[in-house]
Write a structure and sequence with these properties.
Helix content: 25-40%
Number of strands: 7
Strand order of the largest sheet: 2-1-3-6-7
Strand content: 15-25%
Number of domains: 1
Shape: globular
Number of helices: 4
Radius of gyration: 13 Å
CATH architecture: 3-Layer(aba) Sandwich
CATH class: Alpha Beta
Structural class: alpha/beta
CATH topology: Rossmann fold
């Protein structure tokens, strides 16, 4: 990570990803990079439970999950001023309407791309 890359120090981040290896890799990377609290969920239902239990500084969402697509959840989060990164190989970038403040980051993404996407998502909410 270079000095111009935004960090995640002291951020609480929710990862919604049904592929265990990807979820674990993202969590480990964010933990190692200084995030204060990183939680993973593998379904929309689990994600909603996590969101009811705590506040998050940013979220990383896969689109295709076992119980549906995450676009509606992304829109709800943005409406609540929670930064959203959609990290998916199936995402369609939608820059207007309800998802205009969502950042789309295609899989596979490098760790630096993930950090840049989180920084951009946080800037779009500010």
């Amino acid at each position: 990570m270079n000095r111009d890359t935004p960090g995640v120090q002291n951020l609480s981040i929710l990862i919604v990803e049904d592929e265990v290896f990807i979820a674990h890799s993202l969590k480990k990377f964010l933990d190692d990079t200084g995030a204060s609290h990183v939680v993973t969920a593998s379904t929309l239902c689990e994600a909603k439970g996590c969101l009811e239990a705590a506040d998050y500084d940013a979220t990383i969402l896969d689109v295709r999950l076992p119980d549906g697509e995450a676009y509606d959840l992304a829109a709800e989060l943005v409406e609540q001023d929670v930064p959203v990164v959609i990290h998916s190989g199936h995402a369609t970038s939608q820059r207007n309407g309800r998802l205009s403040r969502v950042v789309f980051c295609s899989k596979p993404a490098t760790p630096e791309e993930i950090l840049l996407a989180i920084g951009e998502a946080r800037a779009r909410i500010s």
